[in-house]
Design goal:
The protein is mainly alpha-helical and 195 residues long. The longest helix has 31 residues, at 33-63. The protein has one domain (32-157, 170-194). It is 76% helix and 0% strand. It starts with 21 loop residues before the first helix and ends with a helix. The protein has helices spanning 22-30, 33-63, 67-92, 96-119, 123-144, 146-151, 154-162, 173-194. The protein is globular and about 85 Å long.
Length: 195
């Protein structure tokens, strides 16, 4: 009777799995695609809101009957929009200085939200400040939490450049929530303009 090559004739033959190269598996472990998606989504929306601020301020400046007076008010809005575009572009590329710039901008934003509530503590301002402040804190968590800090670490850029997997940032909560809010705001503006 011929001898079987497996341990038992009743078990299916065992196959050996192909071994991965150690370098490829190390890269798979070294990247945090979820944290990258969060940071990249924050960068995209920071850039979009910066562009919207620039375009909106330039449009209002063009419509103004007193352009010199309007420039005093809208000039800082254009500068803030340009800062948002610059900051968003560098957050998208995972530049470490950009998260510190975002921290400074977020602290200023939280102070402005607090001043808005203190000046007129009506329900709409309270709800808006709570939502805006909560979203700002969530973004800071994404940038400065453990996974966010890891994405900005010095060795991470090397692992990212060696691993060519793409990051689906548009599926991140940090992309979807601002997208839905922007669509809702644009719809409400369109309804108000048409009525």
């Amino acid at each position: 009777m011929p001898q079987s090559t497996h341990a038992s004739p009743y078990l299916p033959p065992q196959t050996t799995k192909p071994q991965r190269r150690e370098g490829a598996s190390r890269l798979m472990r070294d990247r945090d695609l979820v944290a990258e998606a969060r940071v990249m989504a924050i960068g995209v929306w920071t850039r979009i809101f910066g562009l919207l601020a620039i375009v909106g301020a330039a449009w209002l400046l063009a419509l103004s009957t007193y352009p010199s007076r309007a420039a005093v008010v809208l000039g800082p809005v254009i500068v803030a929009g340009a800062w948002g575009v610059l900051l968003g572009s560098h957050l998208f590329d995972l530049r470490p200085w950009a998260r510190w710039g975002f921290l400074a901008t977020a602290v200023l934003n939280l102070l402005l939200l607090g001043a808005q509530v203190a000046s007129a503590p009506v329900t709409a301002n309270l709800v808006g400040a709570a939502l805006g402040g909560g979203w700002c804190v969530a973004q800071l968590w994404a940038l400065f939490g453990a996974s966010g800090s890891y994405v900005f670490s010095p060795g991470y850029g090397r692992a990212r450049s060696e691993d060519r997997r793409s990051v689906d940032y548009y599926g991140s909560v940090f992309f979807v929530v601002p997208a839905v809010c922007t669509v809702l705001v644009l719809l409400s503006v369109a309804v108000r303009v048409t009525t």
